[in-house]
Amino acid sequence: MKNATTLIAAYALCASAIGGNVQILVLDKEGKPVTDAVVVMYPSTPNASPAPALLPRSATVLQEKMRFIPEVTVVATGTTVRFTNLDRWDHHVRGTATGLATPQSDAGFEARLAGKEEGKPASSADITLDKPGAVLLGCHLHGSMRGSIFVTDSAWTLKTNAEGTAQFANVPNGAVKLRVWHADQLLDLPPQALQVSASPLNQTVQLSVVPRRRRI
Ligand SMILES: [Cu+2]
């Protein structure tokens, strides 16, 4: 009898660990899919991590042809991000914290990166981001350069793809708080509550803005 109880308990634990597949579609104000929106989910089982992990252990943001590449980077709190200047001219990168998570924060950073000389390694700066929230990237020398780093406190965080979707597998069953962030969405969207079960869940989130087009 004791064994049977243990078995049932083990099965229940296992069943609760198997979650559902969740797809979030982000649309702009006009109903078009939005690429590079950040989708954050907070499952009610906070210590359940996605496998394989969705977030990188480290990240690199290049400055190349007057752009930040990638334009949007998502990292976990505490991750070190390397800025590397591949252009022949200098960049003076700045990061400014913004958003709900750090409204009063004066956290920010600057890095002057010399232009790359032929045959020499590119100059880099390593910045550790230890506060959750969005960091807007800019350059003191080139006003057109825009980018962002979203520092997340949830292992369940993804950028939307070219179709505007973020797909999460095996999200723990139960209540999940959903948050969507986009650099052009200045007024943060209210978080949504989802109920995840074994059956697939599709949710659409609409921004109240039309993100500006990236200059080619
Ligand atoms: Cu620059």
How does this model look, in words?
- By secondary structure, this protein is mainly beta.
- It folds into 2 domains: 1-52 and 155-216, Immunoglobulins (Immunoglobulin-like); 55-152, Immunoglobulin-like.
- Helices cover 7% and strands 45% of the residues.
- It has 1 helix and 16 strands.
- It has one helix spanning 2-17, and strands at 20-27, 38-43, 59-64, 67-69, 72-76, 79-85, 91-98, 108-113, 123-129, 133-139, 147-152, 157-159, 165-171, 174-181, 192-196, 201-206.
- A 5-stranded mixed β-sheet has the order 5-11-10-7-8, with no helix packed on it. It has a 4-stranded antiparallel β-sheet with strand order 12-2-14-15, with no helix packed on it. The chain has a 4-stranded mixed β-sheet with strand order 4-3-6-9, with no helix packed on it.
- The protein binds copper (II) ion.
- Copper (II) ion binds next to loops.
SSE blueprint and pairings:
Layout: H1 2-17, E1 20-27, E2 38-43, E3 59-64, E4 67-69, E5 72-76, E6 79-85, E7 91-98, E8 108-113, E9 123-129, E10 133-139, E11 147-152, E12 157-159, E13 165-171, E14 174-181, E15 192-196, E16 201-206
Parallel strand pairs: 1-16, 3-6, 5-11
Antiparallel strand pairs: 1-13, 2-12, 2-14, 3-4, 6-9, 7-8, 7-10, 10-11, 14-15
